[in-house]
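Why does residue order matter? Because the sequence determines the fold. Keep that principle in mind as you read this record.
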Amino acid sequence: MEEGMVRGCGEGLQQGGPRYTRSIDHYFYTSKSSINLNMASSNFFLLTAFIALVATQAMASDPSPLQDFCVADRNSPVRVNGFPCKDAKDVNVDDFFLAANLDKPMDTTKSKAGSNVTLINVMKLAGLNTLGISMARIDYAPKGQNPPHTHPRATEILTVLEGILYVGFVTSNQANGENKLFTKTLNKGDVFVFPQGLIHFQFNPSYDKPAVAIAALSSQNPGAITIANAVFGSNPPISDDVLAKAFQVDKKAVDWLQAQFWENNHN
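Structure:
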């Protein structure tokens, strides 16, 4: 009888064992599925947040307008990133107009660089405020240049109207330690783009013919940093100890460069 009871209990355990095991497996399977779903949900959330952040940074140039226009009120005491809007009832057609005379040659004789940049930005045309665009006419004397410079807030697209230009830009520091130079000789009607923030230049290689170009820039106020002016003509000057080490030259060379008259060819 005891043997039967034991055998019966054993059979019961054997019969119950698989059912219990299946229940445990089902529990772990269900738990793992929940964990996987939670992880997938978390990963999706993080990916979405990352994409949103990248998209925000990608659009973090001039802000998009939230109304038809926001004519700059340059006399307002309010200080904002850009300019506050003029009251819409005070806006008139001349806020969107400028008699810039861009069809006429500009004087390049007063510039040591042999160029003249006539910039039309929000400081000259109030209607450009919040529209994220500006333009410039650039005149080059024979052998003149628009020296190496950057636009910290804008990409530039340049079209040659007259003459020939040798243009180029340099990349930021690369992983291999190099800064790659991209150059091209442009003829009349050619177009070239300079990415935002990168050092670039234009040079007229002709000995006897001027050149003219029109540039469009993706900011109402693109800014310009002329490299030589900023480095050697800053006020107060950068220490010659710093520059001598940076350029690996004698301090006398730095002092001579800092003593030059570094002019602005932008008007």
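Helices lie at 2-58, 227-232, 240-247, 251-258.
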